[in-house]
């Protein structure tokens, strides 16, 4: 007869001698939704009522312990019991409760552990308080039990960085009492037996004293002021941790209120949207197709992009064959990859052994014929259709049947590239963002004839390389660069009309961008946009307002950081506006007879963001992006869009389609060619729908 009682759909209580084993089984990540919470309360009560049970041991089934509160419940009416109450019930258990987390114990999952009377992790465990990434603070006693177990410094570090801490480190903090190898159920059972034998001490965390650590609090405040000024609950988190030296209930009440307030904050809503955006983008029409196996890839081109892509692939465990036409190019590529991997070792992201292993999988070559055995090729040479078609024509004859042929083009027509081969179904765009070993975005550009399994292969590769793959259709610039090309013009218009580059940059940095558009231009190299504008010049419509300022700056050899001068000067004295660039701006205004006017920062943000949203809406309307949330992901993971704003189209919903249409119509009075209301936005203004509604439909 089974000794296991089903408490509810997700919780069981198994009697193993004097141990009551409570198992949480709520796939995929055991999030602590209502059923888990109710089940835990009931299981602990049942175990307490069972005379045969002396110790209770909690563990979880599946790939991980509890990954936190169920984020899908946020923003909905609260369901009893709350997580803090659940954990209080666990801690109040008269019989000792041990917990044996495995995989990851995050947020509410870690807080459940903190409420148990002892914690023995399963080797490989990682723990964390990632609420900060959702604009929240730990809301189920992390700020109160955390300092009582591991001190303020470690609690603040975890709660403000959200980083996942390896079990060994957590053990050294005192957050865990032990770390054992084995199956979670076995580790839980052993831990419970150790309690019975008196080998493992148990205690109630809320009854411990926390020690004041003023230095840690000051450091945290300074860090928040510098790096997290838009975060809605970071300061409350510090305050809550500080209160842990006082009465437990008072600290809990403060934490709870801050958490509930945080949930309502638009910044938290934006960050939660970003969390789901990262995951939503993998839901694609080709989702059921089987990806082709990829173990060895070819990278054509050892420049910045090629070596970045090769670095990312090597770090992901793939074998890479890099092709260059001349030895010096190849040497530069090898040098860049070595530097990238060494940098990862220095930053503690990779061990020396892993770096050596990665380099052993790397084969540079001057002969394209060497690509005969690779599973996938990524061409990363400069943006010239003729050159790319020539390469793809050759790949068609060299690569084995079934190899995926990908281009890293940022703008060019993937259909045309595919037409250079006799196997267009194998051709796809894989558009990485620079530096490709760091930036998380990967646009997977699907051409007319690309086979579904080739699309699925692109997404599988993205996952393997820890990138966020976003499906994009073919058009000039795909999702990101197309929208960028459009709204960047607004920055030029604003400056030609009277704002300074620095004012535009400052306004947008205050809005939340890490860097304003003129600083970004200087960083990327102004010559890149210049070359692209020259390429596009024959197609530029006569009605389009064209700002020549950037071109004029480039004509004087000022390409931004790489030449020490662009819109700003970069030297030992730091960054400051470039007086010559300001003169050029004045000259251009004079030449066009423009009397400079002044803009408020709000006006700058309004125009810039409205332009971004307009083109983003068109990209959705034309089906270049599958859903609005895909555009958001592109900007969050490839363009430094502030996470707390959720992405351009999440942000658009906070303004509302009606207001956006009114703005565009107002701006169109001065420039009807540039400012046009996208049909989709007009429809939304009329029927009251939002981009969030479109996400649900898609
Ligand atoms: C919190 O705990 C607050 C408390 O302090 C206080 C409360 C009062 N809820 O990431 P994956 C889904 S805040 C709901 O692809 P992996 C996810 O959307 C929470 N759903 O897997 C996806 O669904 P779908 C703090 C969740 O193996 C599926 O699970 N916790 C949650 O790459 C698989 O996810 C966190 O912030 C959730 N909490 O990575 C941790 N988590 O298949 C968030 C995941 O429909 N989670 N889903 O797209 C993670 O970091 C990763 O999921 C984890 C696994 C590392 C666990």
From TrEMBL:
Q: Which reaction does it catalyse?
A: a (3S)-3-hydroxyacyl-CoA + NAD(+) = a 3-oxoacyl-CoA + NADH + H(+)
> Where is the 3-hydroxyacyl-CoA dehydrogenase NAD binding domain positioned along the sequence?
296-472
> Membrane-spanning residues where?
none
The answer to whether UniProt assigns keyword NAD to this entry is yes
The organism sits in which domain of life? Bacteria
Domain 3-hydroxyacyl-CoA dehydrogenase C-terminal positions: 477-570, 604-688
Q: Which Gene3D superfamilies does the UniProt record give?
A: 1.10.1040.50, 2-enoyl-CoA Hydratase, Chain A, domain 1 (3.90.226.10), NAD(P)-binding Rossmann-like Domain (3.40.50.720)
Pathway it belongs to?
Lipid metabolism; fatty acid beta-oxidation
Record keywords: Fatty acid metabolism, Isomerase, Lipid degradation, Lipid metabolism, Lyase, Multifunctional enzyme, NAD, Oxidoreductase, Peroxisome
Which GO terms are recorded in the biological process aspect for this UniProt protein?
Answer: fatty acid beta-oxidation
- Principal subcellular localization: other
Q: Which InterPro entries match?
A: 3-OHacyl-CoA_DH_NAD-bd, 3HC_DH_C, 6-PGluconate_DH-like_C_sf, ClpP/crotonase-like_dom_sf, Enoyl-CoA_hydra/iso, NAD(P)-bd_dom_sf
Gene Ontology molecular-function annotations: (3S)-3-hydroxyacyl-CoA dehydrogenase (NAD+) activity; enoyl-CoA hydratase activity; isomerase activity; NAD+ binding
Q: Is Oxidoreductase a UniProt keyword of this protein?
A: yes
Localization in the cell: Peroxisome
Query: How is the subunit organization of this protein annotated in UniProt?
Result: Monomer.
Q: Which PANTHER family match?
A: 3-HYDROXYACYL-COA DEHYROGENASE (PTHR23309), PEROXISOMAL BIFUNCTIONAL ENZYME (PTHR23309:SF49)
Could you tell me what this protein is called? 3-hydroxyacyl-CoA dehydrogenase
Q: Which organism is it from?
A: Maritimibacter harenae
